[in-house]
TrEMBL record:
Residues 467-487 have a biased composition (Basic and acidic residues). S-adenosyl-L-methionine-dependent methyltransferase that mediates mRNA cap1 2'-O-ribose methylation to the 5'-cap structure of mRNAs. Methylates the ribose of the first nucleotide of a m(7)GpppG-capped mRNA and small nuclear RNA (snRNA) to produce m(7)GpppRm (cap1). Displays a preference for cap0 transcripts. Cap1 modification is linked to higher levels of translation. May be involved in the interferon response pathway. This is Cap-specific mRNA (nucleoside-2'-O-)-methyltransferase 1. The lineage of its organism: Eukaryota, Metazoa, Spiralia, Gnathifera, Rotifera. GO terms for cellular component: cytoplasm; nucleus. Residues 452-511 are annotated as: Disordered. It holds the Pfam family G-patch. It comes from Didymodactylos carnosus.
Amino acid sequence: MSYYNNKRDRSSNYYRGRGSNYRDCSNYPSYQPNLTKEEYDVMNIGYSDLFNKEYSFPLLNTSKDETLITNKLFTTERWSIPEMMKLKDSINETRNRLNEKDISVWHVHTRKTNMTGQVVFTLRNNYNIEMCTNAWIKMAELLHKYSLIPPNLLNKCFRSLHICEAPGAFICATNHKLRQLYGNRVQWNWTGLSLNPYYEGNDNSAMVDDDRFIVETYKSWYFGVDDSGNILKQENIHSLWKQPKAALVTADGSVDTSGDPNEQESIVSELHYAEAVTALGALEKGGALVLKMFNVFECETICLLYIISLYFKELFVTKPATSKAGNAETYIVARGFCGISNDILEHLLYFVSPAFPENKAILPQNSIQQSFLDSMYDCAKYFTERQKQSIERNLALERLWNFNVQKAVANQVRQVTNEYISRYGVRQIDSRDRIVTKIELDGSAKNLGNSASLARGGLKQRTGGTLEDRRNNKRDREEFLSGHQESDTQISKKINLGQDRSVVPERDVSSSSLEVSSSVTSSASDISLGMKLLKKAGYKEGHGLGVAEQGRVTPIEVSRREDLVGLGHHKGIIGREEVDDRMPTIPDEPFFEMNKRPLYVAIYPDSNPIVPNAIFQGDKIKSVITSLFVRPAELEALYKAREETHRVLIEPDLFKAYSKELFLSDCLEKIPFVVHFKHPKEALQLSSLDKQFNLFPQTASQDQFPIIVIADNQSAEGFIEYISWQQQNLIDAHIFSHLPTTSSSSTQITYHSVDNQLLKVEHLVQTKVSLFIGEVSVSSDIIMKSRYVEYDTKLQFAQICRNALISLAENGHFVCKITDVYTRFTAGIIYLLYKTFKSVNLWKTFTLNPTQPDRFLICQGFVSSKCKGFIDHLDNIISLLRGGKGDLLEIVSITCLLERQFQTYLADSAQELIKREIAALRKLLWYHKNDKLSCMSVDKYLSDAAKLLNRTRRAVVEPDEGIKLPEGWSKQFSEKQQLFYYFNSNTGESIWESDWKH
């Protein structure tokens, strides 16, 4: 009987789900849904060899010819094997059927159809696995299947190296297997290497930002001599080779190829080469290597595998059952390392870089044994067929999906989960045998532990959209990172090849892979969405859809508007929200008093100690594109806004003209105040801080208030103006500025010229002060053009803070105007202050221009006993900064910066201020573009602004305050003469204090 008869016989056409497709039916419920033969067959595609996807290479019968490496590396043109290219075209044709699918929607479907999709969940819940993720179950499978942990390890030391390891699941899987085998009777030393998630120069889109395990095991991670963790830098590999040799090396590296999945193998070839070279120099004799690969069509992969085969006794290509069947991921497992000479290693290392020599093959084709090439073809064919089957299975299940199929697939998934646990002997280990014991890290998205990502809003989300959407997003990101815009012609040809590269010139790739605008193969790409919907409804050309062929004959065409963002439109470039003609607004303008009560950061007695070896120097970062405190997208939006403002409003006078109309900060001289200041901008900035934080005593004896000010001339004069007025001129001030100035004030003010970077205030001021004011200044040109503003302020900031700590009296205050707070260095300086003062605040009042990064750091309540060792630490930092070697990246341990309350406060402040600055810059640009200044003025807010300034002067209590004066007499102060006098309210008589006789 035909399976497709109109009359369907249940006994012939339907399957109960019990039988040959399941090895052990005892684990299944008694009821199984009915399936058609097609549904049954589709569901079981790939089931029979799920746990056996492996290709074993025959042992090469050849002696190692070292001239192959020393003389022939990258000496010939790239080559290809026609049969391999046919396999590549075949799998690409299948993959291209997914191009127009939204990848996030497609992943929802494939998560349901993945046969091993419940293994992680089951192990996590039932076996309490540490960092149980997809990577963990893959590594656990490989460890068991290939016996990668050596036998007879009792009372010995086992060393392993894990390259491109973040977030750490391979390490945790190795620990789990090791403890299952030996308990805690084996000493294990491991090293993790990955792109450093805290290194500000690393692109977040190129790395795993999940640091929950890293932060708990930071001392066991190696990030290279430059702190980046970049394995494509030769010096980082060389330094790693100096460590003790390892018995096991794993390498799980990849790059984002979602923008061009068909060229995944070529995109990652440089990374895989670097990983393999690193492993060859790090392994001990007899050791094993696990290296992630993808397809094996290209000459780069063939050559690399051939080199590996020369130095190992066994070589396998395997796809773990728990590796998603529809992707190209495979793993190289090499056992029995034979050793390698230093000369060969140096030759291999020479070619480690983000890009291979242009259009060159690693080895000549004729230098590779034909038997090995034949094996490579058999291997490629085997895994290509299985990948195609899986994609076709998922596409067919999408078409066939119904309740019965859903139930059958769910049952199949449960069966596979049980098979995995049984086959690989997974058991629960004692919680004390975990690597991290103080908190439980199960690997789930809900349990991020102490991850730095929590403070800035969580882990990054996978990019969705169609292939074209992903390509556009990737292209936009690359253009931002490159720092310049390209022409439309150049953009149309641009394609992501990973590792900060956009294209490898003259590389022999198919023309289809370079046509970003096309979907490469499918003719469906030429059909509009409207036409597809009509055809799905039974449309015939020239006829309507109704019963009488009435209705619409042609589809409604949908055109994409690149200038629009939001639901139903393309995603715009990050940061370009001003795409319509509406006036941009800034939250809480014009006074920006969003946080009515500042956050106070208290000192905790159990704080982490400051240690000298926490200082880390590396190469200078080109751009700060990753931060502990803000998301990369926010940094990108900020830089774009700054750079566009600089380009459009390059004339300073034009910029000031707009700011004067839009922001109160640039018209402070108009605010009605009780006195007219010569430098109202700086004076009222300090007044607004005094209003909020009560920086100055309101009542005191006639003693002078001791202060130190380190700032440029205008700021110093303005600050002193306000302090003199507020303190009734009873101050003892020391001003350090670039040029000596004079003051007409009668108060005691000493000026010091600061002509060098060696200032130590204790040499000039011997007395302790109650207030220390500093300013970290940088030109507006640097602010608008640089993506690393903090680099130009490091020495200033460190010196000012050092001088403040050495000058302040007990319970004194420190105020400093600073700029961006995005790097570990700046945060580290603030951390030292955080542990030295009773409260630390970052504050930006309306008196500071919102288009600038300026903000005030206010530290109150100095505790001298807490800063023991800090001044010496800062002296060391200053000395290193003055030495000018590289870049000082980290000055306190990362665990200090990730103290939850501290990081959260800095992140909240940074995120609030970065959003304010972006919005202010957009508003300024909008008014310039639309010439709307005539309708905007902040003058109406001047009276309200005055209420946010301190208008109260210090009340002086005289030593003779307790003396009883005759009736009608009282003591007064003359503002004009700056002297005290006595006044009789009954007679109107007045007598100067110096002439008064009791």
